[in-house]
Amino acid sequence: MFILLFIVLCLPHSAHAEKNILVFGDSLSAGYGIAVEESWPSLLQQELARSHSKYLVVNASISGETALGGRQRIAKALQQHQPAIVILELGVNDGLRGFSTADIETNLGEIIGRAIHSGAKVLLVGMKLPPNYGEPYITQFQNVYQRLAEKFHVRLLPFFLADLAPEQFQADNLHPTREAQPQIMRKVLKELKPLLR
């Protein structure tokens, strides 16, 4: 079931927030299988409340979302939230379904382009596919993110699930556990910090 998790995290801070950070992703950002308050976007909000209080994290991630789905709804999200920064974490569902990497690149590129045109900075989160998808397709898929980062001159976090131990994944071996969320948040924050200046 695709569940829209549209959350303004830590709402009490919103009265003081001047800038929105839009998390635009899939189940890896929507907190699939764990409590929403334990997800990395929620932990990111908690951290920014301490260190960069003018920012408010808005999580518009949907479990099962594809790059095409994101492309179809990015305009409305940008208009509604007018983010200063967009954290884009999409594409892996397309890859897991064997979609054309050219189409994935086109759709993600459209999202990035619209975000930049709106005045937002972009942090692109890259993904990797399991080895059973074959080396040619895996490589083509990974290269999409690097090309997009270079084309649009945006920051790239190559793979935010890197270095997670097997026990830090849920039973499906795809979604991180709640214990893994702080580690993921720190990876995102490291790449996000230059955009907060």
How would you characterize the overall build of this protein?
By secondary structure, this protein is α/β, with parallel strands linked by helices. The protein has a single domain, classed as 3-Layer(aba) Sandwich (Rossmann fold), CATH 3.40.50. It has seven helices and six strands. Strands 1-3-2-4-5-6 form a six-stranded mixed sheet, with helices on both faces. Strand 5, helix 6 and strand 6 form a beta-alpha-beta unit. Helix 2 packs across helix 7 and helix 5 runs parallel beside helix 6. It is globular and about 45 Å long. The N terminus is likely disordered.
Kindly summarize this structure in a few lines.
The chain is α/β, with parallel strands linked by helices and 197 residues long. It has seven helices and six strands.
Structural class, please?
alpha/beta
User: What is the strand arrangement across the widest sheet?
Assistant: 1-3-2-4-5-6
User: What's the CATH architecture name?
Assistant: 3-Layer(aba) Sandwich
Kindly state the percentage of residues in helix. Answer: 40-55%
Work out the strand percent. 15-25%
The average pLDDT is 92
Shape: globular
CATH class category label: Alpha Beta
CATH homologous superfamily, by name?
SGNH hydrolase
Instruction: Please give the alpha-carbon distance between the first and last residues.
Output: 38 Å
Q: How many helices does DSSP assign? A: 7
CATH topology: Rossmann fold
Strand tally is 6
Q: Main sheet, how many strands, which sense, barrel? A: 6 strands, mixed
N to C succession of SSEs: EEHHEHEHHEHEH
Q: What does the radius of gyration come to? A: 16 Å
- Count of all domains: 1
Low-confidence stretches: 1-16
